């Protein structure tokens, strides 16, 4: 009897496949990348869906359509995995209508006033796809193109290298812009995104990533209880169309202040329309620094975002209205939040903001690290 119990205990620990998940020496066994079809784009090209799994069992599903992260499985304080990224289960829904769930954004993250800017004396006209303004690269931004994908494996990470050549005047932007984005999921439980780009003509560029996170799980309701810290003493106030006024304003003594951990919902009612603002990060010298920390008290999940960029857009999912339904969930107002590391909105028309101009011979680079842990 004792022998039978012992065998059962051992079997239970080992599991049906014979791999016990939490033995350190066995950890590497889980690491890997799988690829499946994600369906067809509007012009009939096949998109793939890659599942990256690290040694601790965290996984990210990423499609080369728009470089979209469709799912992100992360453990809570008890080790329970949950999908913390809002998104859809198939490509058709992304094509039909998506508020940029999980996507790569380019050529310009956030807004350019009136869809116009001047560079080296020439005026460029862009799509006005957000009222009178230009948003997230236009009608067919980087979130809607098919990227070339290559799997990357190292001793301590699994990744995907995505490349795309945006032709001269695509969506109205000058220059052939050759872009590389490397996603990697490391065994330190980080999702890293590394951008590089080069142009053959002076242009403007502001690439970012647009995941909507809900650290309690993508279908768990609103994110108002998440505690947010931003390493930003200032933000850029906006007009009624969400274009920065040009002012850099202190957050101190305003509902915009997240310099110490504060629930997103604590003062959101005092912010017209909810949070949708660019924060000016205290670190602006291009080195890697912590930009944001988010803690979800029920599950204990923590996400820290570090970046080389000077700004971060904090968007509290204000425009989600229940019409987007994905992976069995209905995404209502504030079901997810975005923290998009970036240069400031409308920089091409704001000479006092850090420059977004990229010239031939220069290299654009931008690194974002999302680090997951629990407390
Ligand atoms: C913007 C929001 C916009 C959202 C989805 C965010 O980056 O700041 O204003 O509604 O993206 O498009």
Structure notes:
There is one protein chain. It is globular, with a radius of gyration of 21 Å. With 375 residues, the chain is mainly β. The protein has a nine-stranded antiparallel beta sheet, with no helix packed on it. It starts with a helix and ends with a strand. The protein has two helices and 29 strands. Beta-D-glucopyranose (BGC) binds next to strand 24 and strand 27.
- What characterizes the major β-sheet? 9 strands, antiparallel
- Pairing-aware structural class of the strands and helices? mainly beta
Strand percentage lies at 35-45%
Give start-end ranges of low-pLDDT stretches: 1-26
Mean pLDDT: 93
Number of strands: 29
Contiguous helical run count? 2
Distance, first to last CA = 41 Å
CA radius of gyration: 21 Å
Helix percent band: under 10%
Strand order of the largest sheet: 11-12-13-14-29-23-22-17-20
Identify every distinct bound molecule in the structure, by name, code or SMILES: beta-D-glucopyranose
What gross morphology would you assign?
globular
